Amino acid sequence: MKRVLITGITGFAGSHLADFLLSEGGYEIHGLRRWRSRTENIAHLRDAIHLVEGDILDARAMTEMIDRIEPEYIFHLAAQSFVPASWSCPDTTLTTNIRGQVNLFEAVLATGLDCRIQVACSSEEYGLVHADELPITEDNPLRPLSPYAVSKVAQDLLAWQYHRSHGLHVVRTRGFNHTGPRRGEVFVCSNFAKQIATAEAGLSEPVLRVGNLEATRDFTDVRDMVRAYLLALQQGKPGAVYNVCSGQDISIGDVLDRLCNLARIPLRVERDSARLRPADVPFLRGSAARFQADTGWAPRIPFTQTLEDTLEYWRERITCTDGTT
Fold it and tell me: CA 27, CA 279: separation in Å to the nearest integer?
C-alpha cells in the first residue's frame, strides 16, 4: 500500500481525490483537516481513510505529522480558494496559502522524507490574458488580478524554488476551473444549481441572481481533475508545471442557460451588483498539450453531465420541509 497524504481532504477536490484513490486501490490515505472544518464531503469515507487534525500554519505540527506518516505521495490542496474572499481578507489568503506551503516543504526537508509532492496551483495566476494569447500555455505571462491569484503565483514559484534549491520532487498543476458535485455554493456553477434547486422546492422565488455573465471559463469535471493530480505524480516531470484544462471555454451566461434548461420550473434572471468583483479575469481557455504529452491525460466527462450531476447533488440536499441543507 502506497501511503498518501492529502491536505485539505475535507474540501471539494480533496474528497473527490480520496474517492478516486480508493477506487484505484493500493493506497493508504491520510487526510489533514482543521478541527473546525466541516466533514460532510468525506462522511462516506470515514472507515476507509485516516484523518489527522492539524493546521498547515502550525509548523511543528506539520513536521510531526510528516515524520509520523512518512507519505510517499503528498497532494497539497489545502488553501483559501475563494477569489472574492481574497479581496475582503487578503492577509488571510496570503498567509494561509504561502506560509502553509512553506511549512509543508520545510517539514519534508526536516524529516529527510523522499516523497513526491503535487501542488494545486491555479489558472487564476494568468490573470489578464489578451485575446491573441489564447489558448493559454504554461509559458504565458503571469498577470494576477486578485490577492488569491498572487498567493497562487507565490505557491507556484516556491514549489519551483524548493525543487531547484533542495531537490524536492514537486509537480505543479495549474488547474483551470473545475466543478461538479460537492462544489461549495459560493462558486458559480454550484451557486446557480443551488438557486435552481431551492426554487424548485418552493423555498425561494423562481429568480436567479447573477453577476458577470460575459466572462468565459475553461471548465473540467472535478473527477477528471483529480485523476490528473495522480498522473502528475506518477508520470509528470519533477519541477514541471502543467495546465490541466479541457481546452474549451464557455461563457458564464451559457452555463446559466444550460442549467436553466435543466430546471423543472421557469426562472427569471436578475443581475446582482454584489456579485461583481473589483477586477475579473475576462476569459480563460487553456492548452493541456504539455500535460497530455507527458501523461496521456484527457478529460472524459462531458460538461453537460457535470452540470446535471451538480444540479442533482443540490436537489438531494435541499429539503421541502424546512429549507435546511
Answer: 42
Cβ atoms of 7 and 104 closer than 8 Å: yes
**Is residue 156 domain-resident?**
yes
Q: Is the pLDDT of residue 322 over 60?
A: no
Q: What value does the mean pLDDT take over residues 10-29?
A: 97
Within a domain: 295: no
For the chain, the distance separating the N- and C-terminal CA atoms, rounded to the nearest angstrom, is 37
Helix axes 222-235, 12-24, angle to 10 degrees: 60
Q: Which domain holds residue 107?
A: 2-179+219-244
User: What mean pLDDT is reported for the chain?
Assistant: 94
DSSP 190-223: HHHHHHHHHHHTTSS-SEEEE---S-EE--EEHH
Instruction: Mark whether 210 and 137 lie in a shared domain.
Output: no
11 and 59 fall within a common domain: yes
List Cα–Cα distances, 272 to 98, 178, 256, 276, in angstroms: 32, 24, 14, 8
Q: Which amino acid is at 129?
A: V
Residue 320 confidence (pLDDT): 44
pTM for the whole structure: 0.94
**Where do runs of H (alpha helix) occur along the chain?**
12-24, 59-69, 83-88, 90-94, 100-111, 147-166, 188-200, 222-235, 252-262, 289-295, 303-317
Per-residue confidence at 319, pLDDT binned at 50, 70, 90? low
Residue found under cell 420541509: 321
Could you tell me which residues come within 8 angstroms of residue 18 by beta carbon, excluding any fewer than 6 positions away?
6, 9, 29, 31, 42, 45, 49
Task: For residue 242, give Cα distances in angstroms to 1, 106, 108, 120, 213.
Answer: 27, 23, 23, 10, 28
Q: Are 190 and 183 in contact (CB under 8 A)?
A: yes
Residues 30 and 130 both lie in one domain: yes
Q: Residue 48 maps to which CATH number?
A: 3.40.50.720
Q: What confidence tier does 279 reach under pLDDT thresholds 50, 70, 90?
A: low
Residue 271 DSSP label: E
